[in-house]
Design a protein that fits this description.
By secondary structure, the protein is mainly α. It has four helices and no strands.
Length: 115
Amino acid sequence: MSRRVSMPAADDLFRPTAASLQAVPNLGSTDPAPAPAAPARKGASSGRVRHDEKMTVYITSDELMDIEHTRLVLRREHGIAADRGRVVREAVALVLAEFEAHGEDSALVRRLRAR
C-alpha cells in the first residue's frame, strides 16, 4: 500500500464555478467523463471521453514545453481548459483530416518527406 498522499491538480483547484463558464469542461477532475451523445465523426477528435486505448509517444522536452505552452495560452487567452492529451488528440485529428482531404499535397506528406 502506497503511503503517498494524493494531491489535487491545479485544474481541480482553479476550475471555473460561474454558470457562464461551465461550457468549458474541467479536465482535471477525476470524475468519469460523460459518454458522448453520438459517435465522433471521422476527422473529429474524440474530445473529453473515457478512452479505451493507449499509445505511448516519446517527445523531446522542447516539444513537451510547446504543448504545455499551447495549453496555457488556450486557457489564458481563449478560456479553453484542455489537458495536454486533448490538445494532442485535436492536433492529430486536424492532421489526419487534412491528410485525408489533400493526400499527396498534405502537410503531413510534405513534412515526412522532408525528414
